[in-house]
Rieske 2Fe-2S domain-containing protein
Amino acid sequence: MTSAAAAPERAWRDLIEVSRLEKGDVTPVSLGTRDLAVYDGAGGITVSHARCTHGAANLCDGYFDGRRIECPLHQGLFDARSGAALASPARRPLRMIQARVHDGMVQVLL
Ligand code: FES
């Protein structure tokens, strides 16, 4: 008997052109069924799942100060680089997605 099927390989996928990002802000982007948030912050471009880990809010509707994203529903606060939850009621970190810029395109590793 053979072992279970191998996991699908991860690959860099184009997400959005850098020129289409909201400069210094957060941009909503859908990739398949995933709703993502792309942060153009002081430390560079980072990407997370858009849904707040506390509830159903979309973080793309929140306030981004260049480093932290504040949830629009209960004002939970997250570090947009590490995903760490910084302020209650947010307790679980954001699901970050590895990202890079390649030839003017934001790419994510999925
Ligand atoms: S839904 Fe985001 S802090 Fe509650």
